[in-house]
Amino acid sequence: MVEITSIGQLSLHTNIEVYHFNDKNIILYDDHRSILNVLFEAKKIDFFEKTPNLIFFDRHDDACNPDIKLKELLKKWNVKNIKDVPSRDFWSFVEFDLGGLDDDWLLAGMELDLIHHAVVIGQKENSNIKDMNFEFKSSNGILHEMFDIPHLNYSLDCRGCLGDSIIKEPYYKKIRDVFEYNRPPYNSYKKFSKEVTAPFVLDFDLDCFTTDCEGKQYAWPEMIFKEKYYDNENVHYFMNNLINRSSLITICREPQCCGGLGESNKILRYLDYYFFEGQLNTNPIW
Fold first, then answer.
1. pLDDT at 4
2. What percent of the chain stands above pLDDT 90?
3. Alpha-carbon distance 156 to 150, whole Å?
4. Mean pLDDT value of segment 153-182
5. Residue 171 in contact with residue 165, Cβ under 8 Å?
6. Within 13 Å and on the Cβ side, how many CA atoms surround 84?
7. Does 221 sit behind a cis peptide bond, omega within 30 degrees of 0 on the bond before it?
8. What is d(CA 142, CA 276) in angstroms, rounded to the nearest whole number?
């Protein structure tokens, strides 16, 4: 198995493509649990200064409990640190020991010290995060906070968790701390912090931008995506800042949850056209 010495080399593995946008790496794959392989390889090469937060767009919260313990896994792998696990063993664990429905990778990533805090945007299918009262304590005693918030046009609204001028709910502050956005003092209203002090991965599961009709799933019509995420001035500003401030960008096509490859690729083209200046090459060259 290829030993990774840079993020770009992830493209040497099956199911992973690497693209570049400005100074960012964009990692594209199909199954959402593959994000753990990316984060694991990044940890092995010290890509992050500290365990990153995760901000991700997803129709599901993917926060089922995988019922794993770090110490037991390290003992099984005969190492003392997750960084010392052979890539072959870790990738096999992700493929065969985690859920095939891609619904338990979030807590697995926290247990394995690959993810610190997390915010999922646009989730509407599950209640795992709410059921855990927005937190998860890993077996080594680290407390991880998790939040699910509506799509950004709602969250950035004057009454939304990110957009209100006065924090109305206690957990709004915690959500804003993950984004480092719109925090006291209020002369910084509608602003991000000057410096990124908490590195984060920005992740897109394309099924976040789908809808149901007559029992089938479809990509949002382009006019809907454009209206919610491009024409909306506040959202457009926020999205561009998320992209620019992120340490790494990952995209999960998840075609089986988007209505098929065609619908998944349609959403990928929206992201490419409206936010990545065509660097994902989603349009044919002729």
1. 78
2. 84
3. 9
4. 90
5. no
6. 9
7. no
8. 35
What pLDDT shows up at residue 164?
Answer: 85
Q: How far is CA 284 from CA 6, 208, 269, 275, 280, in A?
A: 29, 25, 11, 18, 11
d(CA 45, CA 283): 33
DSSP at 157? S
Q: What are phi and psi of 201, to 5 degrees?
A: -100, 135
DSSP 251-283: EE--GGGTTSHHHHHHHHHHHHHHHSTTTT--S
For the record, the structure tokens of 130 come out as: 């709410």
Q: Could you tell me the end-to-end alpha-carbon distance of the chain, in angstroms, rounded to an integer? A: 36
**Confidence category of residue 186, pLDDT binned at 50, 70, 90:** low
Antiparallel, parallel or unpaired: β 24-29 and 118-121: unpaired
Distance CA 259, CA 281 (A): 22
pLDDT, tens only, 148-166: 999 999 999 988 999 987 7
**What would the mean pLDDT of 213-219 be, rounded to a whole number?**
90
CA nearest neighbour of 122 among 51, 220, 232:
220
What is the per-residue DSSP string for 172-196? HHHHHHHHTBS-SSGGGTT-B-SS-
> Which of the 8 DSSP states describes residue 75?
H
Rounded distance, CA 174 to CA 9, Å?
Answer: 35
Residue 191 pLDDT grade (very low, low, confident, very high; cuts 50, 70, 90): confident
Rounded to whole angstroms, the Cα distance separating 75 from 165 reads 49
Q: Is 89 helix (H, G, I), strand (E, B) or coil?
A: helix
Residues comprising the chain, all counted? 286
Average pLDDT, the chain: 93
Q: What's the confidence (pLDDT) of residue 235? A: 96
Determine the pLDDT at residue 286: 65
Token representation of residue 46: 């010290």
Query: Which residue in the block uniquely carries the two structure tokens 């003092």?
Result: 185
